[in-house]
UniProtKB/TrEMBL annotation:
Belongs to the tetraspanin (TM4SF) family. The keyword Transmembrane applies. This is Tetraspanin. The lineage of its organism: Eukaryota, Metazoa, Chordata, Craniata, Vertebrata. One of its GO terms (cellular component) is late endosome membrane. The keyword Membrane applies. Interacts with ADAM10; the interaction influences ADAM10 substrate specificity, endocytosis and turnover.
């Protein structure tokens, strides 16, 4: 997006038709892809959820190696009070948390999955030995609901906020395409007017030179 914005700024500063058109088409294509992606995600909601769960499981495998994913996953689990992708057992995909792994993390979940009060002292081993147990037996210890379902439910409960966010993203892009089209039209009109003025000026100069040549020694313009 930085490159697209740079092209737009440069095009507006230089009044370059090619750059303006490139900016408009790129922005229009991005807007079209976003709309199509949103529609497809809604139509194939189950497939979208499965796709998200698969990607979360792959991220869980490298949870301790990918710091960016770790921070995002920890934030989501704490804010949405959830654990894993589909459910808390997804953490068995991690080599440190699978039940056959050596070490204290085996068969457990990260502490961000744990249910705790704000006044409690953080216990990083609160999810110890929970993966191999049934959901009902651990629901008072950890969040047993998966994060994809938790986030989806939050979206449905706060659809007005999400609609506002989506409009805040899409409307500026649509206005960018519309204003680019209007600006291109205006620049083309100015160029056409300039060329017309030049052609009229050249015609007037040629007519003036012809009249002067036929005026004779009195230098009078012919009637």
């Amino acid at each position: 997006m930085f490159l697209v914005s740079f092209v737009g700024v440069l095009a507006s500063l230089r009044d370059n038709i090619c750059l303006l058109q490139a900016f408009m088409y790129i922005l229009g294509i991005c807007l079209f892809i976003e709309l199509i992606g949103g529609v497809v995600a809604l139509i194939f909601r189950n497939q979208t959820i499965d796709f998200l769960n698969d990607n979360i499981r792959r991220g869980i495998q490298n949870y301790y190696d990918d710091l960016d994913f770790k921070n995002i996953m920890d934030f989501v689990q704490k804010q949405f009070k959830c654990c894993g992708g589909e459910d808390f057992k997804d953490w068995s995909q991690n080599p440190y948390h699978e039940c056959s792994a050596p070490g204290p993390l085996a068969c457990g979940v990260p502490y961000t999955c744990c249910i705790r009060n704000k006044t409690d002292i953080m216990n990083t081993m609160c999810g110890y030995k929970t993966i191999d147990k049934e959901r009902l037996s651990v629901q008072h210890i950890i969040y047993s609901r998966g994060c994809t379902h938790a986030v989806l439910i939050w979206f449905l409960d706060n659809y007005s906020i999400m609609a506002g966010v989506l409009l805040g993203i899409l409307i500026p892009q649509f206005l960018g395409v519309l204003l680019s089209l209007l600006y291109i039209t205006r620049v083309e009109d100015i160029i056409a007017e300039h060329k017309l003025d030049e052609s009229l000026l050249e015609g007037a100069q040629q007519k003036s030179e012809t009249g002067i040549e036929g005026a004779g020694c009195c230098m009078c313009y012919p009637e």
